[in-house]
Design goal:
Strand 11, helix 9 (238-246) and strand 12 form a beta-alpha-beta unit. By secondary structure, the protein is α/β, with parallel strands linked by helices. Helices cover 29% and strands 27% of the residues.
Length: 533
């Protein structure tokens, strides 16, 4: 067992005096320093802590990059080259102040059912596999993981790596390509994170360490107690007991940061009861259908920031009081449309439209609003599958063999209903879809990708109160959000919500300040000094 040490958690030490040590490792062909964040389970805050560390090292003058070998999420992002990767790594790249790259997440799994996922390798979809077949593919995927990591280490001072789930799952360790196998390859020190808000943090940290092999355990250089509410002093003597029992120092007690406005990676964080915790009397109320394979649900974060009451709903009755109904993106449009029909939610959407609610469909939600979805190649469901849509838009969708992923600039046209206004408004977003939708009406948007010719996008009803588009990030533009939300509110005699100022940079700085003030950064830097490979 390692000698017992006790970290001075709460220190705000910086990188002063360490520049020569870390920068020297990236010069002359040497590999850069690394630090890995692993957790006792899923959803303990690994992604957010990784983003915080990326921001801290960037603030301290280092070139930093995030890395997660394998991610499982339907919330994804697009690089400038059109590659696809997990949304969390895009946020971490923003925290590090660098452009996003598919090397930051070489393997992305996008769940299509309980037992199948689409595999996105180095930013490109390469097909769907069963869980059983995927776990046999380590030998094939491992060179992609190590190649991506090596490239990042060649051009950055520090790489902050993130694990997935828990490193101590006996049934998964033989085919691991994301946790301890990566740490061992990089000879990287590991910070192990436990979530005290869940309860049992002592047992989860101790149990994880006990289940690791000796070589793996030796890499764990520090422990973090995450999401603590209140004064850390009341935890005494828990941190000391953990350090004495495990022989691993407690790096710090990170606080529960309230109202942190960063995109979530995991749909498990979404509500489903239809009871919004942020309900505001007299405000516009939007129901977002919580589809089983919902994707890119951060599209609707701007609504909450504008004062809209947002409910993620799973039953027809939960739409009764909604002024706006939103069908979000989905990884499996046909399957999720059938799920809606099985519970009567399709008829509830139509009823909401008839009583005056505005209807908005994004990507897969746009496809559902049309008359027909066909899948001749098995890209969304299985080969030859089809399903009738809701018929609220005069358009139909055929799924292509290949996915379209790109960033776009767009213009939302003038019109009636949701498009009412004195002038067109513009914004920037991105596309991730295999569907090709043909509409018999006007296109409400014009898109232009990098170097591409302008083209029409989306569909709009004659009344203007049902709108569909393939553009993710539609509402990120304050002008676009103001037009759509404002028109929906006015239709119901409600005041138009005003968009508050929001800055991702400010949120990342707030996160970094909270984490820097709660961890022993001198100890963190000493761990990074060890992780030079």
């Amino acid at each position: 067992m390692k000698p017992v040490t006790w970290a001075r958690w709460g220190s705000a030490a910086t990188a002063e005096g360490r520049a020569v040590t870390l920068e020297g490792r990236a010069d002359g062909g040497h590999r850069s320093a690394t630090l890995m964040v692993q957790g006792t389970s899923s959803s303990v805050g690994k992604s957010v802590l990784t983003a915080a560390l990326c921001r801290i090292f960037s603030q301290d003058g280092y070139s930093v990059a995030p890395f997660k070998a394998q991610n499982m999420s339907n919330n994804s992002w697009v690089t400038p080259e059109g590659g696809e990767l997990g949304r969390a790594q895009a946020v971490q790249a923003a925290a590090a102040g660098v452009e996003v790259s598919t090397d930051m997440n070489p393997v992305l799994l996008k769940p299509e059912s309980d037992s199948r996922s689409q595999v996105v390798l180095d930013g490109r979809a390469e097909g769907s596999v069963s869980a059983r077949d995927y776990y046999r593919s380590k030998q094939r995927l491992w060179p992609h993981v190590t190649g991506a990591l090596d490239r990042l280490r060649a051009c950055h001072d520090v790489v902050i790596m993130e694990g997935a789930g828990s490193p101590a799952e006996p049934n998964l360790r033989a085919n691991d390509i994301v946790n301890m196998s990566v740490a061992l390859y990089a000879r990287s020190p590991v910070i192990l994170v436990g979530d005290i808000d869940r309860g049992g943090v002592f047992a989860s940290l101790l149990g994880t360490l006990e289940l690791l092999d000796a070589e793996e355990r030796d890499l764990v250089g520090g422990l973090v107690i995450n999401r603590f509410r209140g004064d850390p002093a009341i935890l005494d003597p828990l941190p000391r007991m953990i350090a004495e029992r495990t022989g691993v120092p407690v790096v710090g007690v990170a606080p529960m940061i309230r109202d942190l406005r960063l995109p979530d990676e995991d749909a498990a964080t979404l509500g489903g009861s239809g009871d919004s915790s942020s309900s505001i009397d007299g405000s516009l109320r939007a129901a977002v259908v919580r589809l089983p394979h919902i994707s890119n649900f951060d599209d609707f974060d701007p609504l909450t920031r504008c004062g809209v009451t947002v409910d993620f709903v799973t039953s027809a009755r939960q739409m009764d009081k909604s002024h706006m109904v939103i069908l979000p993106g989905t990884k499996s449009a046909i399957a999720d449309l059938r799920w809606m029909k099985s519970g009567g939610m399709d008829e509830a959407v139509k009823a909401a439209s008839e009583r005056g609610a505005a209807i908005l469909g994004i990507c897969g939600g746009f496809q559902m609003l049309g008359t027909l979805l066909e899948d001749p190649h098995g890209s969304d469901s299985w080969k030859g599958d089809w399903e009738e849509g809701l018929g609220l838009l005069d358009c139909s969708t055929t799924f292509a063999a290949h996915k379209r992923t790109r960033r776009v600039d767009f213009r939302l046209h003038r019109g009636v209903g949701l498009l009412d206004g004195d002038a067109p408004v513009s914004g920037a977003g991105y596309e991730i879809h295999t569907g090709v939708t043909t509409t018999n009406g006007d296109h409400p948007l014009t898109l232009r990708g990098d170097g591409d010719a302008a083209e029409g996008d989306g569909g709009i009803s004659r009344s203007g109160w049902t709108l569909g588009t393939y553009v993710h990030g539609l509402l990120d533009s304050p002008e676009v959000a103001g037009k759509i939300i404002g028109n929906a509110a006015r239709r119901h005699g409600l005041p138009a919500p005003s968009a508050p100022s929001f800055s991702l940079e400010a949120e990342l700085d707030r996160l970094a300040d909270a984490v820097r003030g709660s961890l022993d950064m001198e100890l963190v830097y000493s761990l990074v000094d060890r992780g030079g490979g």
